[in-house]
Amino acid sequence: MVYSGVRRQRVDAITQTLWQAPGLPFGLRRRDVNSDPDTNAQTLVVDVPPGWEMDESWNESDLEFLVESGDLAVAGRDCGAGHYLFLPSGTPLGRISSETGARLILWLDKPFVVRTDAPPTARFPVEETVDVYDETNWATVQDAFAGVTDTTSHRDIQVPTRCIRLRKHEDSGQDTILFVMPASYSKSALEVHHSAEELFFLKGWCATDPDHVYEPGDYMCWAPGTIHGVVRAWSSIVLSKHHGKLTSPEVPLGVTSFEGQLA
């Protein structure tokens, strides 16, 4: 994956365009947040207008999204704010509609193509969390990351992060996680990832290093091998996506480069 590294991009500052594609009803507006030119995977923020509808179909792309606000009926589900869905290619989407309008954080793994013929068998199961803000869905990082190769940067934290590992596909090298960091949270260990990591800041404030503070509506993307920390947060909720194997090893203080260690 070659997603571009981005530091503190305001989502609403990204140019918005009408989304026009064969079979897609007029009216959706999209912001192209990031992309991978090697695979044509895309990260979008999509605004759905009130009353928008789409006939039954399936898509050639895996559709992964969080309803950030509003409502959306899709794949037999009535989704409200905080509803997460991973709908693999081939999933019957049913009739899609929105009564009041919606904003979606959306990932596509390949070019968006609407199909109305008989769908193939989906490669993966549907994954769903109805309300990411429901505390009963939150677990400790240690519990959620059980079996992950290296998450040493998350050990020995006095005020632990909680999270939901929304998508759990080590084999495919993709993980989507909601991190919940309480007031006065601090993690002193520096960390690094072997794959690109995107972050959407949904609630509260979060500092990923001494020079950058993020708030709701911000986006960033760590390129593979970018060392970051110390992390501090104030009642922060962050949506994170790793575009490869999930790792978070601790980096010794004073180390400034991880180059040559990403194999």
How would you explain this protein's 3D organization?
- The structure is a single chain.
- This protein has 263 residues and is an all-beta fold.
- It folds into 2 domains: 11-129, Jelly Rolls (Sandwich); 136-251, Jelly Rolls, CATH 2.60.120.
- Helices cover 2% and strands 45% of the residues.
- It contains 1 helix and 24 strands.
- The strands form 6 sheets. Strands 1, 15, 16, 17, 18, 20, 21, 22 and 23 form a 9-stranded antiparallel β-sheet that branches. Strands 2-3-4-12-7-10-14 form a 7-stranded antiparallel β-sheet, with no helix packed on it.
- Strand 16 (162-169) and strand 17 (174-181) form a beta hairpin.
- The longest helix has 4 residues, at 141-144.
- It is globular.
- The two termini are 14 Å apart.
Number of helices: 1
- Label the overall shape: globular
Following the backbone from N to C, one meets helices and strands in this order, namely: EEEEEEEEEEEEEEEHEEEEEEEEE
- Alpha-beta classification: mainly beta
Can you tell me the number of structural domains?
A: 2
How large is the share of residues in beta strands?
35-45%
Q: What is the level 1 CATH name of the largest domain? A: Mainly Beta
